[in-house]
What we know:
By secondary structure, the chain is mostly beta strands.
Amino acid sequence: MSNAYKLTVNGTTTFDVNEAQLSQLDAISTAPNNYHILKDSKPFKAATTQTNFLAKEYTVTVNNNTYTVNIANALDELIVAMGFEIGAAKQVNDIKAPIPGLILEINVTVGQEVQENDNLLVLEAMKMENTFQSPRAGVIKSIAVSKGDAVDKGQLLIEFE
């Protein structure tokens, strides 16, 4: 893997940068998260205003213009190309009944904010109680069943926003 990076600015403009190009910048820290930069003899005043290290996303102000910058290295690009994007498994937007059964409890309401692993409802099937937990953090958009309802396999139970 090389030391090249793909920068995406404001989700629209993408360009590649390598370490040689970065070394051509003359940057001096003037205060924490503030910099004075010379590029091709032109001065720039820059500041990092927000950082999300895990998402590799930074909000940067350059000469009073604010930009959101995402940084991806070669490994990140390879992961996307292979279809293994981080967090893709957490994009569950609905809960469906895996087997026929009877709704015993509903522990959430429409509009309620839930966290991953919060108890959503209890489904009785084959004389066993099955507790459904939230697969992700989110807000409950709709509840398609009521306590005491009989449900079929594949029937929509809960939908997330």
